[in-house]
Amino acid sequence: MSEMNFDRMVAQMTPEMYENFKQAIQLRKWPDGRMLSAEQTELCLEAVIKYEVIHAVPEAQRVGYLERNECASGGHDTAEEAALKWIN
């Protein structure tokens, strides 16, 4: 698929399609139960990210968003520090 066709497809995605793609990425399978290939996962993720940019989805609602918590010194945790806190 050419970049122009992909961009046009993303611009025409409905909110329902966007939510279905996000769920498919999370579960690694389509709503009918078929597994996503690595290429399908990558394309869905790219479509979701482009959709979020085109439709100005708030940052906190975007795929991959990590909330940054302030540490005692008043600074922000790095994404790596936040992930380590979540894991521990």
What does this structure look like?
This protein has 88 residues and is mostly helical. Helices cover 55% and strands 0% of the residues. It has four helices and no strands. The chain has helices spanning 3-11, 15-27, 38-54, 79-87. α1 packs across α3 and α2 (15-27) runs antiparallel to α3 (38-54). The chain is globular, with a radius of gyration of 16 Å. The N and C termini lie far apart (42 Å). The model has no long low-confidence stretch (mean pLDDT 80).
Brief descriptors of the model:
single chain; 88 residues; globular; DUF1315; DUF1315 family protein
Per DSSP E runs of 2 or more residues, the count of β-strands stands at: 0
Run of helices and strands? HHHH
Query: Which word captures the global form?
Result: globular
Helix amount, in percent? Answer: 40-55%
List the helices and strands and how they pair.
Elements: H1 3-11, H2 15-27, H3 38-54, H4 79-87
Helix pairs in contact: 1-3, 2-3
Briefly characterize the structure:
The chain has helices at residues 3-11, 15-27, 38-54, 79-87. It has 88 residues and is an all-alpha fold.
